[in-house]
Amino acid sequence: MTNSNKHLGSDTTYANTANRSINVGGTPFAYRDLGPRGGVPLILLNHWGAVLDNFDPRIVDGLAGRHRVIATDYRGIGASGGTAPVTVDEMARDAIALIGALGFEKVDLLGFSLGGFVAQDIALKAPGLVRRLILTGTGPAGGKGIDKVGPVSWPLIIKGLLTLRDPKYYLFFTSTANGRQAAKAFLKRLKERKADRDKGPTPSAFLRQLKAINAWARQAPQDLGSIRIPVLIANGDNDIMVPTVNSTDMARRILNSQLVIYEDAGHGGIFQHHANFVPKALTFLSA
């Protein structure tokens, strides 16, 4: 395990946090670790095809002002070794093993999109492990329209290639003036890190993760009512990737949950409204 970041403090931002790696059952998992020691660490689980450089630095830095934050790469993605799993179940088991390897007995989880699927599965598989859960731009197993992620995404991925724009410009944000402005600002933030950037996903890993998303869409609904911990659910009101109705559905099924829906915002509602989301998340985590 490489141990950079010897002097972690307020001077460390996500853009200059060292890349680290830890061996979990023979596979190296890439991660970044910042923020104050002590207290319950917050584990970040990201979207389809995301690597360490796809976490919004404004959100990571905002949360790391008060909490130890660990951003991770799934197996087979970015600098992590192994082959990308084709089920959320395997991703959740990997994350539980990673948390154990890092020596944590209790964690908070923030899952965005695919990461929200994984975070729910972890909370159900290892109920004693998770203290608080934040689910953003995500939905439950068998959720409405999750099987359309591929058909919705491919045309906009191609549009991104044709217009020389990152597909997230179209996939994560609304096509209104607000949405376009937020998309540009977000994509600019993702480029703030100049050195030691993570490797992008391979086409094979990208397609394997889509298989996991499709399997989650076909899976029988889980018993979300058995999640007893506090849960914060956030999304935009116009999510074309994981339809917003799924956020409302999860909030209805999870007893101890709060729901935040941002207006004129899409899948990346928390990125568009990071200035509102970060204080909400901090209040939720410290309540």
List the helices and strands and how they pair.
Elements: E1 20-24, E2 27-34, E3 42-45, H1 57-64, E4 69-72, H2 88-101, E5 107-112, H3 114-125, E6 130-136, H4 149-163, H5 168-171, H6 177-189, H7 203-218, E7 231-236, H8 245-253, E8 257-262, H9 269-272, H10 274-286
CATH topology annotation: Rossmann fold
Shape: globular
CATH H-level superfamily title: Alpha/Beta hydrolase fold, catalytic domain
Provide the helix percentage: 25-40%
Radius of gyration, whole Å:
17 Å
Regarding quaternary structure, what we see is single chain
Which structural category do the helix and sheet elements fall into? alpha/beta
State the separation between the terminal residues, measured CA to CA: 34 Å
Number of domains: 1
Strand order of the largest sheet: 1-2-4-3-5-6-7-8
Q: Main sheet, how many strands, which sense, barrel?
A: 8 strands, mixed
Count of extended strands = 8
User: Mean of the pLDDT scores?
Assistant: 95
Kindly provide the name of the CATH class. Answer: Alpha Beta
Organism: Cupriavidus lacunae
Protein name: Alpha/beta hydrolase
Pfam families: Abhydrolase_1
Keywords: Hydrolase
Structure notes:
GO terms for molecular function: hydrolase activity. Keywords: Hydrolase. With about 290 residues, the protein is of the alpha/beta class. The protein has one domain: Rossmann fold, CATH 3.40.50.1820. The chain is about 40% helix and about 15% strand. It has an 8-stranded mixed sheet, with helices on both faces.
